[in-house]
Write the structure tokens for this entry.
Amino acid sequence: MISTEQLYQTLKQHFRFTDFRAGQLDALTALSAGQNTLAVLPTGAGKTLIYELYGVVTQKLVLIVSPLISLMQDQVTALTVKGEKRAAALTSLMTYSEKNWVLRHLSEYRFLFVSPEMLSQDQILSAFQRVQIGLLVVDEAHCISTWGPDFRPEYLLLGQIRHQLGDPLTLMATATATQHVRDDIKQKLQLPQATEIVEPVDRQNIFLSVERFDTQNDKNDRLIELVAKLKKPGVVYFSSKKKANEMAELLTAKTNSKVAAYHADLDPETRFKVQQQFMQDQLDVICATSAFGMGIDKNNVRFVIHYHVPSDVESYWQEIGRAGRDGEQSVAILLYQSGDEQIAQFLSEATIPQDNEIHYYFQQNAPQIAGDEKANLIWFYKQHGYREDQLQAAFAKRREQRLLALRKMMGYLRTTACKRRYIQAYFDQLKGDDHLPKHCCSSDEPQPDFKGLGLLASTADSAAANDPQNSNTEWQAILTRLFNFAGHQSGAL
DNA sequence: CGGTCTTGGTGTACACCAAGACCGGTGCGGTACT
């Protein structure tokens, strides 16, 4: 049992903060009392501090299950910068000998990051079984629910793995989860009694807007107009890599903004570079697919525009939640053309196998058919004791749930009542009218006053002027040379 | 699903149109290939 004084003392001495953010102390208090905890906290440094502080206070090994290698690397770097040398990520990017070295010295580490796939491997798991784990963290825990069933099934093994690790104290952390998703996470991790710490999800500083279009051309024109006039930086989300590329090109041609595309087809180097440039305000706008987001902690994003309809409200909320982290007025605009929901429907059903596919692959005894995701998925379930009819029933249910989720998303588009209240209700956090911001959503203000909201780009703020590639580096150099030659001081600029 | 592109047949020599194919996101790890 750790006292509240001890927690505050470490917060001050080690982290140099005077106070906890909402939910952090509650989560730490629950963990200190030995309670497994599900923490739903708004994004930011909030969640990492919880397990970091727990590791520092208890001096025990913290094992963090994380969905992305890039996320693990970011965290390890952040810890290393803070002087914590006993942090590492165990990933496929390591050589065989590096991996072995870490596995043989597990007890010397304080923070270890690992993917569910890595942790599912026998040698890795048995290595962890030989050490005592002070805290098991499932970071981005909603992935259990959203990715587990049909995309990254190893997420479904975490409950069993947790038992095999000796039922260590567990923290499940995520930024967005409905009661349904929270129940699902707890059920799949076999921790139905876990303490829930849930902070409100509403973001009052984000104006919510939906616009409808009859043709794609009209939508494109509006996107160009919005990107040209809105205060940057901003993100535009697409459901297609091709469209993200196309529009990045079009926006570059038609606006003064610096725009780049971001999706899974980029080579890792470019992908990293684009992200870095955006983080450092060298890019104004990112045209992204859902690949862009997790682990992005940029506080001055002014707009998030959706060119396509996301397949559920959670995804939408998570994506627009990347706007206005600094608390300043921001805007989320969904550009809808009737029929767009079919892409969403296709995508949310695409990874769910049909009965005939399940039947077909169940006859096969070949484990890995290269590149055939569905074959691998069904093989995974078969290996873990599912019968054909059970699997068909499970996927039928899944399909039904995905369809319902899309219907709720469409409800957000269609509602002529307050969009914010629709979201609040969706997350079971409905509040009174007095809790709505003055400028709330397009149901009240179909033509939002972007100027009044302070969201118009001024000339000085505009992309080209802010672009270090052009003005600060290239132009600055040219002007400096000219003025030096003319005998002026650079101050004259 | 539905828009867009490709293919193939028609009837008559280069264009036209209908039927059919294709597209549409997220990542881990390790193994089998070039």
In short: The mean pLDDT of chain A is 89. The longest helix of chain A spans residues 388-414. Residues 355 and 389 of chain A are 9 Å apart (CA to CA).
